[in-house]
Amino acid sequence: MYEFTPSGVNLGQRASTQSYVIPMQTVYVGSNFGGLVSVNGSPVASGTTFNLGSGQSLNLSAIENQYNSQGYTMVWGSTSQWSSNTNWSSFSKSTSYQANGSQNGATITAELKKVCTITFNGPVLSGGSYYYSSPVTAVEGTPVEVTALGFTSSDYIDQIFSSWSDNQTQNPRSFIVSSNTSYGINYIGIKPNNGYKNLQFVGSTGQNVQLQWSEHPNSAVNQYQIWRRVKHNGITGPDTQIGTVGRGVCSFTDYQYVYTSSYSDDLLWYDVRAYYSTAGTYADAEWNAVFGRVDYMKENNANLAAEISNELPTKFEFSNYPNPFNPTTTISYQLPEKSFVTIKVFDILGKEVATLVNENKSAGYHNVVFDASRTERSRGMTSGIYIFTIHVNGITQSKKMLLAK
């Protein structure tokens, strides 16, 4: 306690001197992890005692970036507060505590939070930053939003998010953690990536255009489509599939065109698209250009014509890409012989939407584009499953496709 003399009292008159007692309050100040705190501008150890008279105050401030006994960095988080064993509290990092004389033995604690890490097995986006091999940081008790990203696997298959390791499927997702942790991400392979391809033109001027490429490293890629686009007299023609080869074959010769070095000749684009049987998808188009012209000599040479015929398909096959689509998809089909072909599109109830082909077609590779926005009977088409059928030589086959608007 303190003893003092009130104002207005003559100190020379001892008989009139009175003693006044000011009640003192003992206050303990510290942090929830035993670290330093700032009191009246100076760092003090956790558990330091202060004796305050009524009305006196302490200026308090939490000190961040200290380590607790487990090695976590401690910070002032969004849920941090100054707490006490009385009814006093404060949610401000820097605050003031005033004694009132009735709370002797008050314990005031800075409740800091741990800085935790979340490790993922794939690339994620959080707080505008990209994380692949490094973990995401998160303050204990504070939500952190994370978006799982797609990537290309080492065997050149494009992967997209499927689910988290706890089977949750929302993406992006908020995580609230209390310690260092890890989450797995499950992926689905959707299509081949072109990074493997290394497509090259082989040969010299006057020779037939020959393509060579590298084998796709994923064994589920079991086919390659060869496509060509021609710019003749300033007009660019349609993309045309000119061949299909199986896995293990990494070259193709276009016997219809020869190399030239003249800018006045045709400009030829070629593309080799890998087929991923697991997902039933092809790689995205990636064109490579070269100058060439029609091989007129080969058109009149019976022996070479027979050589060309070896490039014709040996069996009937068909597919469409992309699937899902919006609003167009290309239906590709190959005929080992001249045939009458009918291709129609139906909705899921069996109502005909469009007739795309209804005529004789030569042996070889063919394409037709279905445009859901332009077909007369497709006005008002909604998202959903549609079926296209192809009728060749008395045989009808069908395939589902998804319009995703």
Describe how the helices and strands are arranged.
Elements: E1 3-4, E2 20-21, E3 24-31, E4 37-39, E5 42-44, E6 48-53, E7 57-62, E8 66-67, E9 73-75, E10 81-84, E11 94-98, E12 106-111, E13 113-120, E14 124-126, E15 129-131, E16 136-139, E17 144-148, E18 151-152, E19 157-164, E20 173-175, E21 181-183, E22 185-192, E23 200-202, E24 208-212, E25 221-232, E26 235-236, E27 240-246, E28 251-259, E29 266-276, E30 281-282, E31 288-294, H1 296-299, H2 302-309, E32 317-321, E33 328-335, E34 339-347, E35 352-361, E36 364-371, E37 384-392, E38 395-403
Parallel strand pairs: 3-12, 13-21
Antiparallel strand pairs: 1-2, 3-6, 4-5, 4-7, 7-11, 8-9, 9-13, 10-12, 13-16, 14-15, 14-17, 17-20, 18-19, 19-22, 23-24, 24-28, 25-26, 25-27, 25-29, 28-31, 29-30, 29-31, 32-33, 33-36, 34-35, 34-37, 37-38
